[in-house]
Write a structure and sequence with these properties.
Distance between the termini: 26 Å
Order of helices and strands: EEEEEHEHHHEEEHHHHEEHEH
Mean pLDDT: 94
Shape: globular
Strand content: 25-35%
């Protein structure tokens, strides 16, 4: 049996402007997804796929003809069609891989609750790319076509500065002396604003002076040596972007009375926020119904 693994992702700073070639600071997570692959010596021309959630319960399963990638049967046709499309594009990128004289049994498993939104799609793209021996960025472009920061996180084991035009990944060593003051809070609610805000940014005329300035803030955040400076940069980034998009910050929406910093991670309306520690902060968030609070060191590689 072969085992492949990919890391999840969180987007610290650089959201939206990364699509315009600006720098972004992304964080691979300790949580991710694994793919287990076995060749089946009995059957030919079959691909069996079983996807499991973090608690080992079944997410979905499907069977395909290997050479045509036709769906034979599935417990969830919509998910099977999505997987089929990824596999078809992978075959285009490596036409010699799927041969009809063999069969595969594949099983994926998340090691975090799917609703956390740490990259079940991006890790899948990376896992299939490892399996089929292709470039994950090429597969991503043919399928989900994200900025690519999530794909970069999947295969890197430390924080990165990422640009997508041209593609560049710079590994970063974080030497902040305030790591113990940083926490991730899961918003545990369905966020319907995420795609709307993203489309809103795309449809606005570009302000390249603003984009350049925000990109400089991404660079600055790496070298700060104290928590107040870190918070100032985070707040300034959000304030400028909020004014440009005419969209409220997550802190204004839910945590306006909190004394520390609250930063959306990735698309505004996403699943996690970064918060900076203040006395009694855990009680503050739990009283508002946000019970999942994860220290930076427990989340980030």
């Amino acid at each position: 049996m072969k085992k492949f693994r990919s890391n999840g992702k969180l987007f610290l700073i650089g959201e939206y402007i990364v699509m315009d070639g600006a720098k972004a600071f992304a964080l691979p997570t300790k949580f991710g997804q694994c793919l287990f692959v076995e060749q089946n010596p009995i059957e030919n021309n079959k691909l069996k796929w079983v996807a499991k959630k973090y608690d080992d319960s079944l997410w979905f399963e499907a069977n395909f003809e290997l050479n045509s990638l036709k769906i034979i049967d599935s417990s969830n046709y919509k998910l099977a069609k999505s997987l089929q499309n990824i596999l078809i594009q992978a075959k285009i990128l490596n036409s010699d891989f799927f041969q009809s004289n063999i069969s595969y049994s594949c099983s994926t498993k998340l090691d975090y609750p799917q609703e956390w939104g740490l990259g079940s799609s991006s890790t899948l793209i990376d896992l299939i790319s490892q399996f089929v021996n292709i470039n994950p960025f090429n597969l991503n472009k043919l399928t989900f076509n994200t900025s690519g920061y999530d794909i970069a996180c999947a295969s890197n084991s430390q924080p990165i500065i990422f640009t997508n035009s041209p593609l560049n990944i710079e590994k970063i060593n974080i030497n902040w002396n305030f790591i113990d003051d940083l926490f991730f809070v899961y918003l545990n609610q369905k966020q319907d604003t995420q795609a709307v805000v993203g489309d809103h940014y795309k449809n606005k005329a570009k302000d390249f002076k603003m984009i350049s300035y925000l990109s400089d803030l991404v660079e600055e955040i790496i070298t700060v040596d104290n928590l107040p400076s870190f918070e100032l940069i985070m707040d300034e980034y959000q304030q400028i972007l909020s004014k440009f998009m005419k969209q409220p910050k997550v802190k204004d929406l839910y945590f306006s009375d909190y004394k520390g910093c609250v930063k959306s991670l990735g698309a505004w309306g996403g699943d996690f926020v970064l918060v900076t520690k203040r006395e009694g902060f855990e009680e503050y968030f739990r009283n508002k119904g946000y019970d999942i609070i994860i220290p930076f060191k427990e989340m980030i590689l």
